[in-house]
Write a structure and sequence with these properties.
The complex is a heterodimer. Chain A is mostly helical. Chain A has 4 helices and 2 strands. Classes of the chains: A mainly alpha, B alpha/beta.
């Protein structure tokens, strides 16, 4: 198993959009190493002949008619928890930074 | 014993009987529980939010409907506590996280809608580990819940608030969610009953998702009959949840009322009956099995060789699914928004919001899940964990070919001290060693009190597991064992719990009714 480095944790934090502090990155680097060591035993028994299971109960895909029912949220309800809104729209910060 | 003290100690079924006969009103019963919460929850901290006004209004409406002769559900007028993982109209829903502090959802989760429609009276929202990640409620962003048996100890988790609320007689019923044991392990450490139904038995619509292929909503109660009555209310197909099982369910309450273990084949899982379990936990487990055997059950040993890999598989599958599910907390549509000094792009705002809004365990699992799903590691970790899931399911299939139900101790130890395992994630994860296999396979499980461990006087649970869709078997064996044990004890185990009134802050309110 590859060692987990602080650079890797910083990269993962960026992918997961969490602005971890240097201290958190250092702490998580140690912990992740220990946890991955504990869980990599799954490789001992996961041989090629075993099929993976993604879902506990076998199920068919579920379809419904493509019509709007009467139990959908109103725009007012959907926006009721928005940190910032403009009429019936969510307001977000700039997508691109100045250097982009 | 005052009138209101009497009311809070009734089971939900007994209280429903009194309500139905008009001996007590729902407003009186609800007020008695609100008084109890006001008196003891400062010490227990089972609740994150108490909706006294809404509860009394709902109770008055049930009383009015009853007086008008309208047809009501069996549990109509009975109060219930709701785990904060379920979204509720008119009550904040935080899932134990700062990122959702103060959020009032615009809709009810399906299990919440069903309990409201059945006339149950929601008292408030219960404490939990943040996003249900934990086994002690210590990962709640709002401070831990305390075990009513010993306030210095954990109430289990993630649903420690729901379990403690029923154990402390603050509510006769509660709703919980179980992803790896979050209903059953708290039941074990608080001397209460908890059931994880078959995956898909209860809709997950409106349950703030942790790991979608593992999560299941279920009852948290003091008696097996109460759990059955509540499952009968919340189970059933829901078009809003595509993983919800379409077939109808038999009455679980009937299974309890007709409970009989004559000829029942019970398999003891060899791999979960080891020195790794505390002496008193094993002792009560085996005494329960002997009692069932004397009453006609057949006890056999079964093997489940792949259960030892279940925790490892779980701690890959859960973080992987959680890292994806928690991506929705992006500071745009609801929840916390933190803008960095001097502003920033939407990505920087998201990263700052998630840094400020998530606690350490949530960050740990999101990073772990992101790693397990990243290119180059996916097959080795997530793919392999999914194969272990197949092997665990095969172990269950082989066991259930020989026996009707399986039995294990619910968790390795009795309630440990708050803080004892907080800095050791791997030790904390081991609490769920006996409960995780059921979530990986989607099968139902129950934990009910088996006694007190002689070495520390703390509650011990016994777990039964049944094949998928055979939840009624759990209620049969659970109902029978509860009856046999209570006959031996001379009453329910919770009668031996310490009197929390010494912690009451407002004792003068006693008997206010």
């Amino acid at each position: 198993m590859p060692e987990i480095s602080a650079e890797q944790v910083a990269h993962l934090a960026n992918l997961a959009r969490i602005a971890l502090t240097e201290e958190e990155i250092a702490h998580l680097t140690t912990e992740l190493g220990q946890i991955m060591q504990a869980v990599e035993q799954v490789n001992q028994v996961a041989t090629p002949d075993v099929p993976p299971t993604s879902h506990p109960i076998p199920m068919q895909n579920v379809f419904r008619a493509d019509v709007v029912t009467d139990d959908v949220l109103t725009p007012e309800q959907a926006l009721s928890g928005a940190p910032e809104r403009d009429g019936d729209r969510f307001v977000v910060s700039a997508i691109l930074g100045e250097e982009q | 014993m005052s009138h209101s003290d009497d009311l809070i100690r009734l089971s939900a079924a007994e209280l429903a009987g009194r309500l139905g006969r008009g001996e007590v009103s729902s407003v009186e019963a609800t007020q008695a529980h609100l008084d109890r919460i006001a008196a003891v929850d400062g010490a227990v901290h089972a609740f994150l939010h108490v909706n006294a006004e809404g509860a009394l209004r709902a109770a008055a409406e049930v009383d009015r409907a009853r007086a008008a002769g309208e047809s009501l559900g069996e549990l109509a007028g009975v109060p219930i506590a709701i785990k904060d993982v379920l979204v509720t109209e008119g009550m904040p829903s935080t899932s134990g996280s700062k990122i959702l502090e103060g959020w009032i959802p615009p809709y009810d989760a399906t299990p919440v809608r069903k309990v409201r429609e059945a006339g149950l009276v929601p008292l408030g929202k219960t404490n939990m580990d943040e996003f249900a990640m934990g086994s002690s409620t210590e990962h709640s962003a709002y401070g831990p819940t305390h075990n009513p048996w010993d306030l210095d100890r954990i109430p289990g988790g993630s649903g420690g608030g729901s379990a403690a609320s029923v154990a402390a007689f603050e509510a006769p019923l509660a709703l919980g969610s179980d992803t790896g044991g979050s209903i059953r392990q708290p039941a074990h450490v608080t001397g209460t009953v908890g059931v994880k139904p078959t995956y898909g038995a209860v809709s997950r619509y409106g349950s703030i998702a942790l790991a979608s292929s593992l999560d299941q909503i279920g009852p948290v109660t003091r008696t097996v009959l109460d759990a059955a009555l509540l499952q009968d209310v919340i189970a059933g197909h829901d078009p809003h949840d595509s993983t919800s099982i379409a077939e109808p369910w038999p009455s679980m309450a009937e299974a309890v009322r007709r409970a009989d273990v004559q000829g029942l084949r019970i398999g003891v899982v060899k791999e979960l009956d080891t020195d790794g379990f505390q002496t008193g936990v094993r002792q009560r487990f085996h005494e329960s099995l002997e009692l069932l055997e004397r009453n006609g059950a057949e006890i056999v040993e079964v093997e489940a060789p792949n259960f030892e890999h279940a925790i490892a598989a779980y701690y890959l599958i859960l973080p992987a699914e959680a890292s994806s599910n928690l991506a929705k907390f992006d500071s745009v549509r609801f929840g916390l928004r933190v803008t960095p000094q001097g502003g920033g792009t939407v990505e920087q705002v998201m990263a700052a919001s998630r840094e400020a809004g998530f606690g350490p365990e949530v960050k740990r699992r999101i990073i772990l899940g992101t790693y397990a799903l990243s290119a180059g590691y996916y097959d080795a970790y997530y793919g392999s964990a999914q194969k272990v899931r197949t092997l665990v399911q095969r172990d269950f299939d082989q066991a259930f070919a020989k026996v009707d139900v399986l039995a294990t101790p619910t968790a390795p130890t009795t309630a440990f001290k708050l803080g004892e395992k907080l800095d050791d994630p791997l030790a904390m994860y081991l609490n769920d060693i006996a409960t995780i296999p059921a979530n990986l396979a989607g099968v139902p499980g129950i934990s009910l009190p088996a006694g007190l461990a002689p070495e520390d006087g703390l509650p011990v649970g016994i777990q039964f597991l049944a094949p998928a869709r055979q939840d009624a078997r759990l209620y049969n064996v659970g109902g029978a064992l509860e009856r046999l044990l209570e006959a031996e004890w001379g009453g329910p185990l919770l009668a031996k719990a310490p009197d929390l009134s010494t912690h009451e802050l407002t004792a003068t309110e006693e008997g206010a009714l």
